[in-house]
């Protein structure tokens, strides 16, 4: 019997300028859609709280980060009120991480919803139905899970088994791939997979790829780096999760990517701040990245158990608004100062500038004037550009 299946992606507050989540798609819902199509059901994918003009037979609602759970529960409440007796299944990151939590289970019982932890084999075997959305890229997994057990990451809790694929070529339907693997290079078949991508074309055009997560630099060899370049991976990212003293290891990883043909300013370094290391140590890491000539993908730490995040970069805030790691002496001022420093430094790296100025950034002075200004002493530059900021100085 044909059924109406309602797939709901809550309206999560993803910042419009977010680089880390700009390519987010409700992939689990798209896989569920493919599975239900094999049962001849009719699928409806919607975003947020919508006045649905039909009676669904089954509803799926996905979740994302734990600190966006309020948007998730608001959405669940909305559809439970609209459809009192319709079965509702909920899943996703937040649901999986809080599955054993008694308060979470109590809410599920009160709203009469069925929670699903982790992945479902029948859904996971189904290819995402991209016919339900209008995008020019494809999210893909060459593996699930991760062999590492980083304390700040929930992947190994949600997907405890590392499951690699031997091939992905038959899954590719678009010219831009965004790999959502949590440790792409840990796949024992990574060389074969990269070789599949080297000459691959879709609709007569080359396929380009990027990895949403940073490459595990400990697994990066020159052979792999050259294959990444040949496979047309753009914006290579590596992670610097450790202390400043690891800088020689990071420099070695950067050198490997540069030897493979990447320019240093094309490379980004994932760095978690507001976490295990102080503002002062993170600043040392930041300045080292400037010395290396690479950009930084800054990641503000929010613990896996954090139930809210009302961060606003334009106002003064407290730990009541968002997580601030006071144990490592972070403050609202330091959090926002570090993020500001990273942004200005990245602009300098991209433009080969030795200092940042809003007038330069907004092109209020001609490029030709830059070479004249840079030759001046710093105090003279400050007279012409009072907001001039040098990435290699202490802040």
Structural description of this entry:
The chain folds into 4 domains: 4-121, Rossmann fold (3-Layer(aba) Sandwich); 136-234, Transcription Regulator spoIIAA (2-Layer Sandwich), CATH 3.30.750; 268-352, no CATH class; 353-395, no CATH class. Helices cover 33% and strands 15% of the residues. The chain has helices at residues 27-37, 69-82, 93-97, 102-111, 121-124, 155-158, 190-198, 222-230, 247-259, 279-292, 332-351, 358-361, 367-374, 378-384; strands at 4-9, 42-47, 58-63, 88-92, 114-115, 138-140, 143-144, 163-164, 176-179, 201-202, 205-206, 208-211, 237-239, 268-273, 295-300. Strands 2-1-3-4-5 form a 5-stranded parallel beta sheet, with helices on both faces. The protein has a 3-stranded parallel beta sheet with strand order 6-9-12, with no helix packed on it. Helix 7 packs parallel to helix 8 and helix 10 packs parallel to helix 11.
- The overall strand count is 15
Shape type: globular
The average pLDDT value, as a whole number, equals 91
The CATH topology annotation of the largest domain reads as Rossmann fold
Gyration radius (Cα, Å) is 23 Å
Number of helices: 14
Number of domains: 4
CATH level-four homologous superfamily name of the largest domain:
Cobalamin-binding domain
Characterize the main sheet: 5 strands, parallel
- Name the helicity range: 25-40%
What is the spatial order of strands in the main beta sheet? 2-1-3-4-5
User: What's the order of the H and E elements?
Assistant: EHEEHEHHEHEEHEEHEEEHEHEHEHHHH
Strand content: 5-15%
Sequence stretches where pLDDT stays below 50 over 5 or more residues: none
Give the class-level CATH name of the largest domain: Alpha Beta
CATH second-level architecture of the largest domain: 3-Layer(aba) Sandwich
